[in-house]
Amino acid sequence: MNDDDAPLPPDALGHHVSEVFDLIGAVYRRGLRKVEQGEQVEGVSVGVRSVLGLLRRHGAMTVPQMGRIMALSRQFVQRMVNDAVAEGWAEVTPNPAHQRSSLIRITAAGEAVIDAILAREHALNRQVGGDLTDAELRACKRVLKEMLRTFDHVDMD
Fold it and tell me: For the chain, how many helices (H) and strands (E)?
C-alpha cells in the first residue's frame, strides 16, 4: 500500500470532504440548469421528478418513506406528491399496513413522464468526459455514500 492508499488523518480528510461538498453543489446546480435548458418534459419540477423516479424504482411508498430516502421533509415531499397526483402522474391508495399513511403509486402516465425525463438525463450524462473508468465511478459512489451515511441521524422534519 502506498501513501495514496492509506486512510487520511481526520484533519486532511475534513478538508478533502469540504472540497467534495463544494463540487457536489456546483455539479447539482449546473446539471439542473443544463437539464432545464433542454426541451421541457411535461413541466415536471425537480421535486416531482424525484418523487416519480423513486416510485418508479421502488414501487408504492408512503410520503414518510420517500422523505427518509430523499432526505427531505415530509411536508415538502407531500407537496410534490400532491403536484404529481394533480397531474395524474401518481395516485393515492389505501395502505393496509397503516390507516393514516396512504400509499402513493405511480400511474401509467407518470411512468411515461419519468421515462422521458430519464432518457433525456441519460443522453446528457453520456456526454461526461474524462475517460472515467468503472473503478473510478465505483470509488466515487463509495465516497458519496460514506458522506451521506455521516448525516443519517439528521432529522429532515
Answer: 6, 2
CB count within 10 Å of CB 78 equals 16
Q: Where are the beta strands (DSSP E) in the chain?
A: 90-93, 103-106
Q: Does pTM surpass 0.85?
A: no
DSSP conformation class of 14: H
Output the DSSP codes for 16-27.
Answer: HHHHHHHHHHHH
Span 54-68, pLDDT tens digits: 999 999 999 999 998
d(CA 110, CA 19): 37
Distance CA 31, CA 124 (A): 9
Q: What are the distances in angstroms from CA 51 to CA 5, 33, 89, 116? A: 38, 19, 10, 15
Cell numbers standing for residue 149: 451515511
Instruction: Return the C-alpha torsion angle 147, 153, 154, 156, nearest 10.
Output: 110
